[in-house]
Amino acid sequence: MKIYGKSPFRISFYGGGTDIEPYPSQFGSCCISHSINLGCYGTINFNVKNKIIEDLNKEKKFIYTKNFSNNKIFKIFDFYSNKLNYHFKYYFDLPTGSGLGSSGAFMALLSTFLMSLKKNLNKKDIANLAYYLEKNILKTSGGRQDEFSSVYGGFNFIEFRNNNSFVQKMIPSKRFMFEIQSRSLLMFTGIIRDGGKVIDKHIKIYRDKDKIKLLHQNKDLALKAKSFIKKNDFKNFIDNINLYWKLKKKYNPAVTNNKIDKLISVALENGAHSAKLLGAGNGGHLLIFTPVEKRQIVIERLEKLGCFQRYFSYIDNSCEVFN
């Protein structure tokens, strides 16, 4: 049996950082994100005699070894069932470290493949499995929203309380989405970063009780942003991105660096409404909201500083597999 699948990356608008443990378990967290037309893709064939993984981006084929030294993804299949044979091929539109939730999207895809063997395509079960595999089997540092963003797809308000998750589909007006899409600009900074190191710093900072207040403010802002969506208030939704970025930097200065600060400053000086770095921080992509008439000048100024535009669109598609 051969199965095909695709899983979307996401743009995270608000709440990023509140989804990193132990904050969600202690206080509850919420995030707002939207899936996009970039993502990861794969095929898996279970009617084979060996255990093989192919990374098509790197053009590398890996044969199973018991110590998983050649590819740690083997750990996931062995955790699920060490009697399973498979030939798994995958590729990404963009590399991990881009700030678009690519690793979470990949885990969502892999979990959907595995759950399809049990004929269980319940979204919450798949998302929970994806998060568990990434954090407990692969031991990767990260928040909880990315897997859920890919599994559910579309525009979502995602809450985490202890071990529970609640996903509310946001359905704004067509005008709201038109304004968000037309004003969105995705710029690659030229930096691919290890988000795990930034998140490890985030967790250490959490011991400072005064800093936790900033996560509370971050969560409150996400709740306000949810109300902006319900009211179709795209202006406040866009403008408050600046406040979110200030809170994130204040909590953990490691999310930024001199180059990123310069890029955001130049974007704002040339007419952008707001700007923030996506993902864990310190590299990857900038999300910039800019008036249409200022769009080209912002692009040109940032290109001179080593950035380039990444074309994308918001979509409602979720992670899916099919024969």
What key attributes describe this structure?
323 residues, 8-stranded mixed β-sheet, Alpha-Beta Plaits, alpha+beta, single chain, Ribosomal Protein S5, domain 2
Model regions low in confidence, pLDDT < 50 over at least 5 residues: none
Helix content: 40-55%
How confident is the prediction overall: mean pLDDT?
A: 94
Percent in strands: 15-25%
Name the shape in a single word: globular
Main pleated sheet: 8 strands, mixed
* Record field, number of beta strands: 12
Distance between the termini: 8 Å
Query: What structural class do helix, strand and pairing data support?
Result: alpha+beta
Number of helices: 12
Overall tally of domains: 2
Radius of gyration: 20 Å
Compressed to H and E, one letter per element, the order equals: EHEEEHEHHHEEHEHHHHHEEHEE
CATH architecture of the largest domain, please? 2-Layer Sandwich
CATH class of the largest domain: Alpha Beta
What does this 3D model show about the protein?
The structure is a single chain. With 323 residues, this protein is an alpha+beta fold. The protein has two domains: 2-172 and 315-322, Ribosomal Protein S5, domain 2; 174-309, GHMP kinase, C-terminal domain (Alpha-Beta Plaits). 41% of the residues lie in helices and 24% in strands. The protein has helices at residues 23-27, 73-80, 102-116, 123-137, 145-152, 174-183, 195-205, 209-230, 234-239, 241-251, 258-269, 295-303, and strands at 2-14, 29-45, 51-55, 60-63, 86-92, 155-161, 164-169, 184-188, 274-277, 285-289, 308-309, 320-322. Strands 1, 2, 3, 4, 5, 6, 7 and 12 form an eight-stranded mixed β-sheet that branches. The protein has a four-stranded antiparallel β-sheet with strand order 9-10-8-11. Helix 3 (102-116) packs across helix 5 (145-152) and helix 4 packs antiparallel against helix 5 (145-152). The longest helix has 22 residues, at 209-230. The mean pLDDT is 94.
